[in-house]
Design brief:
With 411 residues, the chain is an alpha+beta fold. The chain folds into three domains: 115 residues, Orthogonal Bundle (Butyryl-Coa Dehydrogenase, subunit A, domain 1); 106 residues, Butyryl-CoA Dehydrogenase, subunit A, domain 2 (Beta Barrel); 147 residues, Butyryl-CoA Dehydrogenase, subunit A, domain 3, CATH 1.20.140. 49% of the residues lie in helices and 14% in strands. The strands form two sheets. Strands 1, 2, 3, 4, 5, 6, 7 and 8 form an eight-stranded mixed β-sheet that branches. A two-stranded antiparallel ribbon has the order 9-10. Helix 7 runs antiparallel to helix 8, helix 9 runs antiparallel to helix 10 and helix 10 packs antiparallel against helix 11. The chain starts with 8 loop residues before the first helix and ends in a 6-residue tail after the last helix. 45% of the residues are buried.
Length: 411
Amino acid sequence: MHPINAAESAPEAGRAPGAAGLGQPGCPPEVAELRGRVAAFVRERVMPCEPVLDAGGAPARTALHRLQDEARQAGLWALPIPEEYGGQGIGLARYAHLAEVEGASDHGPAALGSAPLLDVLMLGRHARPAVREQRLPALTSGALRTCYAMTEPDTPGTDPASTTARAVAGPDGSWTLHGRKWFITGAGEADLVTVMARIDGAGTGTDGLSLFLVPTTAPGFTVLRELPVLGAGGQWEIELDGVTVPSDHMVGERGEALRIAGERLRLGRVLRCLRWLGQAERAFDLMCRRANSREQSSGPLAGRQLVQQLVFDSLLALRTTRPLVYEAVTRLAAGEDARLETGMAKVAAARMLQQVADAAIQVHGAAGLGPDTALPGLFRTGRAARLLDGPDELHVAAVARRVLRDYDVTP
């Protein structure tokens, strides 16, 4: 069984996220030392490189490769990836405590080799044997980069029944894909894309929705454009114009796309929540240090009641969100139904990150809007979080429906 189932930039480099007294409630003693090492690596090695990594291009690739080599040398590489594929096999219940500090930087998972976790698990469970043998070791080593393409232009991202991309079967068992996908994280640098498409002639709705592994070098595959999100890059639009892949590049069986996607999304949402916790702690730490260090004629900002209110509300949001996230972690790690817990955690964590980042910007004043702190990026992530992996409204409605069904007394 796979181990996972179910203020100013310079001062920031000197202290861990959460140094303002947040701590890590419930962190197992056997994980605490490793968590400290991961936190230190992200703080001391990754965060100082963020401006270069954010800019993209050749300098970013060089910097990322250097960080990945350092992570390997430090024994921190591919911590949650199954051992059979070359990782260290740390299960979700333990890895969750590492994912927080790893995710304090958007680049932490890539630098530490955990970014391909969802793809490794998906292909490990559902890819054909030849594909597993060929692709998974390269994924774990970092030699191969993947992404996942589900959302399409002009169709609701939360309604897979609207999928228009199609796959046509060839006489030799191959598949030819046509369609466009967008808001795909990392597509501009990817070697492989997992594409959701409808098998031609399979009907409407969710009938025939299947997944295909597509090499980005295949004829007919085009990266159309980058889609900046609130001014930041990293999302892309692609086109598949008669891209042909072998029969063994179908992931899972015909019509299984939604079941496989559901597995992926449940774990992916929990991992995002954990990383948002880490980013919120980073913003909280920046806010508290700014409040204590910023002097006015009447004394430090920390003496102002309105600033104290922002600190209290942010701490309350963090402390009340963390148990929701870890409840989802516990149920998912145990192989239990975690749909309700995951939905609540996703909404709470997204709102919390936006709230804490906004409060930190307010305490920084104009400096919080500029390039000298991580706060603009953290706020941008918080705002985007309310749409990623399904908008808040989708999760609110889904959770409410599940709860209300338990109260239904209709005969």
